[in-house]
Amino acid sequence: MREGVVQTARMGAVTQDPELAAWLVMRRGEIERALAARLGESAPRAAAPETEALRRFRSFAASSLEKGRPPAPALDGIHADEARVGRLLGAWSEAAAEVAGERGEAVRRALAPLVTGFRAALRTTQPARRASGAPRANRRAVVAAIDRVADLFLAIDATNGHIVDANPAAGALLRLARDALLDAEVLRFVPEAEHGRWATELEAISEGAEPRRFSTRMRDGAGTEVRVDAAITRYATRERTLALFVLRVET
To answer: What is the C-alpha to C-alpha distance for residues 77 and 126, in angstroms, rounded to an integer?
Structure first.
């Protein structure tokens, strides 16, 4: 039995709630502020391994709630104390419930099995990781790194504007399964008033421009608009030029 299946069995029933997945992404800033107020001076540093574990848990939680089934948590490279991570995830869940107001108890119930599963995965994988040594840097590690990024990631063909890759956070915000984003035209998720700006940015990247940044809006599958800060980097292969977008919800 694969390790991911074992962890899924341990965490119990997982709620499928795409709306909550998108809400966690869009309200991340408010949740982080509530968490900071809750922890005070005991909050871990930005570079602490517990903080990195929380970043990966946020992506894991959004993907799990979007699909109704949890993926295997991306834990490569994490060397954090499981008990400390557990306390931090518990505090983050309480902060999310606080921001949710009247819906707080529902948020708490939805996150509880995900916290349990993530902690179990961390507890059982770290001994194996210590025994086997540092993992090799390969394509799977790069994919895992992109998947655990809390910001939205989109790789877009700069010539035709089609999405060729996306991370779970992008699917959660746009309220679509990740696979449904692939090969879709990115302008489908952009308000018409912003189409010209996106076309200009993609053209600049295709012509070899330096990394660019701009503020824009995106629109999810239900038509709800959200403002994001977009950073774009050019990545050229023999077959095509990709525009790599990292988008952060503006709060």
So the answer is: 9
